[in-house]
Design a protein that fits this description.
The chain is of the alpha+beta class and 437 residues long. It is 29% helix and 18% strand. Strands 3-4-2-1-16-15 form a six-stranded mixed beta sheet. A six-stranded mixed beta sheet has the order 5-6-7-10-14-12.
């Protein structure tokens, strides 16, 4: 019996096929609620059941609450004809994904260039009440609740089973726009049209302060937001900070008591436009020059953190596609400075003994897979795309099996109103604590 792709086990996030005998035992124990023969309470059958459902504390008859369900109405589906009849007669609502419990074994980190936060912010409560009052005035046959807002931040967090951290790039909020900043905090904690009992989140913003290099568009440009589950903040004693070498709103750093340093990065897109001294406004180079300086500063701080015992996770839009496989139909080579920028990034973070010698998490786990994060909206889907959003991790996270999972949510639905797709990694926190103890 193959693994249901909609189930994500908290303890075994990437498990392959399970034996049919385990499915049969599971049916008797969990669905029919019949006791399992005592002799089968130990050995490979128990292990198979534990792998099948993620975790069963004991195979004595325990309440069904001992098992968590994800996207499941029943454990084993009935035949199609009975299934259709049962669904037609069922009045129970679709189950809402439960929040992950505290003290998790794993931590999931999402990163996403949203290309502007406004489409993801909920409408005001006043507008929602107005819509409801209009619907009540219509005949009951036409009245229906509004559909869930699938582009909302809260919906994204729920859909991806409440990740501990979500790093957003290019939020494009004017630093003086306090109303929009408050709206983001509301949007990650409440979905007006799709209420839930999920965990609460805290929002941290870094918006542009550079009056010479972050101008135009009403100052609605650049900016990053790191969204963190409140229980993770408390359990990990996490702190969030900016870096003194970034005034464009490109970097936020989360540091935990488990010695994990998680970066949210919107790296500079190198161009021939002028780069000015942030204090005087004097032109001191191009944005290509600043991009190379950004790489250098990022490397220096990452290596300092590693020397101090931290394991580093650099997540975000790096504006670099590292290799030929990461560009379709071809890798960008014009102008030539893009080639120089790519080589500099690869040397500093992957290849050079003097560099970070980090690991490209997605490429490490999917060495030949062609998936992309950047999909411009002015061309047909997947006709011109690049993998410029990366999560680079310290080598120790791979060597000690702490990196559990890495992938890209590549679909038009997941891209939503942005021009980038989300991507993520999963970290085994128990192994991390052992490695950094």
């Amino acid at each position: 019996m193959s693994r249901n792709p909609n189930i994500r086990s908290e303890r075994y996030p990437t498990i392959g096929p399970r034996p049919d005998c385990a499915a049969a035992l599971a049916y008797h124990y969990l669905v029919a609620q019949r006791p399992v023969v005592p002799v089968l309470r130990a050995g490979p059958f128990v292990a198979a059941l534990q792998r099948l459902f993620g975790y069963v504390s004991d195979l004595k008859l325990q309440p069904l609450k001992a098992v968590q369900y994800y996207h499941m109405d029943r454990d084993i589906s009935p035949p199609p004809s009975k299934r259709q009849k049962r669904l037609a007669n069922s009045k129970s609502p679709t189950p809402v994904l439960p929040p992950r419990p505290s003290l998790l074994r794993t931590t999931r980190i999402y990163s996403w260039n949203v290309n502007g936060i406004v489409p993801f912010i909920q409408p005001s409560i006043a507008s929602f009440v107005a819509k409801q009052s209009v619907s009540k005035s219509e005949p009951s046959s036409t009245s229906s609740p509004p559909p869930p807002v699938t582009t909302s931040l809260r919906n994204f967090l729920q859909r991806h089973q409440w990740p501990q951290i979500l790093g957003l790039q290019e939020v494009k909020i004017n630093p003086s726009d306090l109303s929009t900043q408050r709206a983001v905090e509301i949007a990650v904690n409440k979905c007006i049209s799709c209420p839930d009992d999920g965990p609460k989140y805290k929002v941290f913003l870094n918006l542009p302060k550079d009056k010479y290099n972050a101008r135009g568009f009403g100052r609605k440009l650049y900016g990053v937001a790191t969204i963190i589950r409140e229980d993770f903040l408390q359990e990990e004693g996490a702190t969030v900070r900016e870096v003194d070498w970034d005034l464009e709103g490109r970097v936020l750093v989360v540091e935990t008591k488990s010695m994990l340093s998680i970066w949210n990065i919107y790296a500079i897109n190198g161009t021939s436009n002028a780069w000015r001294d942030s204090a005087t406004g004097v032109v001191i180079g191009t944005r290509h020059d600043r991009k190379l300086a950004f790489h250098k500063l990022l490397l220096e701080e990452s290596r300092r953190l590693e020397r101090n015992g931290y394991q580093v996770v650099l997540a975000g839009d790096m504006n670099i596609a590292p290799a030929l496989i990461d560009g379709f139909p071809r890798l960008r080579t014009n102008p030539e400075q893009h080639v120089v920028n790519r080589k500099d990034f690869n040397d500093k973070f992957f290849d050079s003994p003097e560099g970070l010698q980090g690991i490209d998490s997605f490429r490490y786990l999917h060495p030949k897979q062609k998936k992309y994060t950047y999909h411009p909206r002015n061309v047909a889907w997947r006709t011109s795309c690049d993998r410029v959003d990366l999560i680079v991790v310290s080598k120790t996270l791979v060597d000690k099996g702490i990196l559990v999972e890495a992938d890209i949510e590549e679909s038009q639905a997941e891209r939503g109103p942005s021009d980038h797709c989300p991507h993520f990694v999963t970290i085994d926190m128990e192994l991390l604590r052992k490695a950094t103890a």
